[in-house]
Amino acid sequence: METTTAPAWSIVSEVELTYKSKVKASERPQIASSRDAYQILLKVWNEGKIDLQEEFKILFLNRANKVLGVYHLSTGGITGTVADPRLIFMAALKANCVALVLAHNHPSGSLKPSRQDEELTQKIKNAGLLLDIKVLDHLIITSETYLSFADEGLL
């Protein structure tokens, strides 16, 4: 009995990219300020976790600064969460965005960015330059207020 082996090219995984919007282009909210971004993020943040554990989310925007989608990147502990730039830009490219707004919460209620927050923001901003995806802002949010890196000159 003769067995045939499939050629190597026929057993590779196929990569497929899709983006399906559930919101009509005319109904997408527009970001004109850090306050707009904060208001949208509050609506999508899990109310029961904002004061409990850190989460990292990203708003993906088109050329008109209209929100294409929100990406929940990670959930961490009380004092930190992971934000892998590769995952951020994988999702950003898949959503076909041209700009993004980074956001994470501080369950402590403190709006002071840590050194890690500042370094991560710069790292993501630099990666975005290479891909022509602009990092417009990074918000640190609480259930009551927020800090905008862009407004504070930290971006």
Brief digest:
The protein has 155 residues and is of the alpha+beta class. It has helices at 34-44, 85-94, 115-131; strands at 55-61, 67-75, 99-105, 134-141, 146-148. It starts with 33 loop residues before the first helix and ends in a 7-residue tail after the last strand.
Describe the structure.
The protein has three helices and five strands; from the N terminus they run H-E-E-H-E-H-E-E. The protein is an alpha+beta fold and 155 residues long. It has a five-stranded mixed β-sheet, with helices on both faces.
Helix content: 10-25%
By DSSP, the count of extended strands is 5
Overall shape: it is globular
Rg estimate, integer Å: 19 Å
Distance between the termini: 68 Å
Q: In DSSP terms, counting alpha (H) and pi (I) runs of 4 or more, how many helices? A: 3
Please report which band the strand proportion falls in: under 5%, 5-15%, 15-25%, 25-35%, 35-45% or over 45%: 15-25%
Largest sheet: 5 strands, mixed
Overall mean pLDDT stands at 91
Structural class designation:
alpha+beta
Low-confidence stretches: none
Series of H and E elements: HEEHEHEE
Neighbour order of strands in the largest sheet:
2-1-3-4-5
